[in-house]
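User: Can you model how CR1 sits in this protein?
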Amino acid sequence: MTPSEMKNAILHHLVYTLGKDVSTAHIYDWRMALSFAVRDQIVDPWFGATRRSYAGKLKRVYYLSMEFLIGRLLKDAIINLRLEDAALGAMNDLGLNYEQILEDEPDAALGNGGLGRLAACFMESMSTLACPAMGYGIRYEHGLFRQRFEDGRQVEEPEDWLNQRHAWEFERPEVAIDIGFGGHVQEIGKRANWYPSEMLIAMGHDTPVIGWKGRWGNTLRLWEARPMHGFDLQRFNRGDYAAAAEPEALARTLSRVLYPDDTTEQGKELRLKQEFFFTAASLRDILRRFESEYNDLKRLPQKAAIQMNDTHPAIAGPELVRLLHDERGMDFEEAVGIARNTLSYTNHTLLPEALERWDEGLMGRLLPRHLQLIYRINELHMKDTGSRKVTAVEDGHVKMGELSFIMAHKVNGVSALHTDLMKKTVFKDLHEQHPTRIVNETNGVTPRRWLLSCNPRLSSLITETIGEGWVDNLEQLERLEPHIKDSSFLERFAAAKRANKVDLARWFADDLKISVDPESIFDVQIKRIHEYKRQHMNLLETIAHWLEIRDNPNAGWVPRVKIFGGKAAPGYVFAKEIVRLTNDVAKVLNSDPLTSRYLKVVYPPNYNVSLAERLIPAADLSEQISTAGKEASGTGNMKFALNGALTIGTLDGANVEIRDLVKAENFFLFGMTAEEVMERRKDSGHAAEAIAKDSRLARAIETVRSGRFSPEEPGRYHGIADNLTHHDYFMVCSDFTDFWRAQREVDGAFGKPNWTCMAAYNTARSGWFSSDRTIRGYMADIWNAAPAPEVEDAAE
Ligand code: CR1
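Assistant: Here's the modeled complex, given as structure tokens:
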């Protein structure tokens, strides 16, 4: 497409789709017009992919996920369709600012963090690899809350991305599926009929997901809850307006909000309803499609692979059994076998509070037939394994992790360490019974968004140096290695990083009114705020560092900017205190005339995908400092390494694999191993001992306790200080000393010529962390799915 063709397409949509005239169009109208013009280019390859999936009778992958953290889509589509020149040219021609138009798009935050973003990267990779697939989730009216700071405190505001028209989706009113809850069960022999007492409709909305070079397009189908019986006209006519609208309002609550919890269980009835709602709608859609093509249900596992992203869709096991057994008359054991061969399950966390358990009473009320089937599935499992232990039900609770395990033919962890710990801890017994069921698929990230699109300077340098093949064959980045000896390459590598830092510094100055020196180390920790991720350890180190600079301001300190980003779950009190402390520390440090040249703290609010795209390319140092054994994988860690930041990190999650690949000398390691953590926890005095041995740590904690950062309320941080001294479950104190040492090593290395070499090695050796590699692993080890044969590039 040429710029002038693009321009015509944009003008056409402006007038005929949006009904706007050039002279009255706002930036929103232009953005929509551009989006529609780009969307038009997606439709053909998208339809083509669907047609070929049917014609070739290809196996389809169904990715069931409560979250898809897709972020902005316009630039993604432009990049994958290679329409940058056309779009930029058209915008210039129309006198519009391309960057500003891209920034106008709301960031679709239909997820909390890593799990949701992984699902989005997977969708893109499946399209790039021409793996016939469909993502299924919920079309939340309100995505993750917007974070604002008020006197340093986190304030949550509703995210209303759907207030504007969503350019990328196609409404599918014909894809409407009845979903029931509650009611009673009538048993007929071993089968049963379920008569729900409450019904609503799941309506589909399709968003095409286009792969690199437009080769293939899959669908993300998100369900919206609609009332079965709309509006009550009789009540309305009687003047009872509120009651007339009630059924509608009630039904809609189901897809109203995303649960703003990353790793803690939400024992809420609404949450269970949401889980059943989208899982049941998706399964029925999948079976409908299957039955339109095949008439033998035994072939389901050959033609469909259904991935349960965490336990949120775990009800898929009993629901699929119900559909096959109760509704289609298949023998129970056979139904379980077919369901199991179709389903697989990814575990994303070992934190006990995050492993879903549903009260049997609640489950029985909401899903009476499913509870019965869960008992029978359990019995069958006991019979098959000769085990006398009831696995999926315990103390009046249904354990969704165990249920998922029993109903899946493969269960995967998301990094080597995490998978290993799954076998040794939460799933120990089940692993012994099914020793080949657990497999590892280390996470990955899509290089299209997380390098090509977010870091154009580094991307161009890479392409000029080794050609463009790396974009969909990321391991080609290793071809950069010989160039790391070449001083002109290194200079350009450093220049790209520096220019990214200058851009970020300008944004800090303009948007946050904080000036930072781009010569400083840009040290970044961005992720959900959680004790196990230890933002508070990073803060304590910052405070200790600040105190040392104050003691001796002229000692030639290496300047640093500590950058934080992340949201705390609204009900997670400790995390919210960490948020506030970060802001309070920033206030004191940034205005300290003695030290602010050397140390600043920046905490931009409302961390989201777009902010990550802005921060990561400008980072020198990536903070991956979780308590070993707690972070299942991490994916931010991969994005940083890929963009030439060095990691300071523990041997946790995928850090282990990152360090192996980029090599120990290009990674700042510190801290206890997972085993050492478990060992040390046995000693109840661990925190006090660690504090007694490290005067810097003691002083930092005392400074927090003293009210230095909250003079208007000196006791504000007693909670944090007490927790650290007496409890410290996540071992901040025990790891602090080594963390400090590693940070000073960073100071020593930064600014030396070798730093750029180390950074470049990180980029060159991160190719394995492409989500294309991860998806190939799922296809081979779990889904038994193949890419569509002979796919040409649509966008060449
Ligand atoms: C894990 O905490 C992992 C992602 C994706 C998160 C993180 O370590 O990288 O999943 N888990 O696998 C999560 O969000 C609800 O659980």
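A couple of observations from the model: The chain has a mean pLDDT of 96. The domain at 447-769 is CATH 3.40.50.2000 (Rossmann fold).
User: Helpful, thanks.
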